[in-house]
Amino acid sequence: MEEAEREEPSFLLSIVDAYADLCDYLLSSVVDSAKTVTMSLNSIIINATTFIVNVLWIPVRIASFLFTLASYILFAFTIPARICFNAAANFPIITILFVLTSLTLLYLIKRITQQNFIQWLLYTAIPYIASIAFTVLGIFVPQVNTLVNIVNHLSHPIQWILDLIATIRRRAAAVTRTVSVLSPRRDTNPAAGSIRRSPRLSVSSNSSVAGSPSTLDCVICLTNRKDILFRPCNHMAVCKDCLPSLMDEDEPLCPLCRAEIDSHFQVYY
Fold first, then answer.
1. From 39's CA, which of 58, 173, 194, 259 has a CA 20 to 30 Å away?
2. Transmembrane region positions (predicted)?
């Protein structure tokens, strides 16, 4: 009987110990799971916060880049003004002479070439300077001429196609311009009691009756007086109101002799 009583408490103690071990295991599992979930949440929150901060900083970085770029551009554009200011502050007499010489040069360019300074710079000065630079470069670096010849040979088919298109457009423009000159134009707001004249009759009368008042009429509108002189053909055929429509063509031609118009100026009489 005593041995049976002693075995019962030991059995109960083993059950209690097993239950305690199970509780400890479950508690440690729950704690570990909680730690894992907490760490995962912390990492997710940290990553999300970092991503949001980076996204929100994108406009600030773009604005900073644009501001820096604008400051560099402004600095580059103000270089001539700062140079002129420093020159005027340190060398006033030389600056005045330079300004007067520049104004005189611009006036001479305007009078001689009938062009403003920008047109003269784009169509005369820069090509001339570029040709000199290219010639000097070809002397010291002969490989440049070889490269240019290779590029010319490679672009020959393309250049032929472009020349063909330019020829077609030139001929089409001449035909279109001839038709526009000879065909009558509709007046959207005719004056009361006015009689529309036929351009073909007016052109023929101009060519047949020399010295009559109709010879002073514009060959396009047949209303205003001719006051635009074309160079180099020296023909005066249109008025200043019809000049823009004529010069809008790719290669403007004189309506009388079909010569290319290099320049023009208004005549006052």
1. 58
2. 37-58, 65-83, 89-108, 120-141
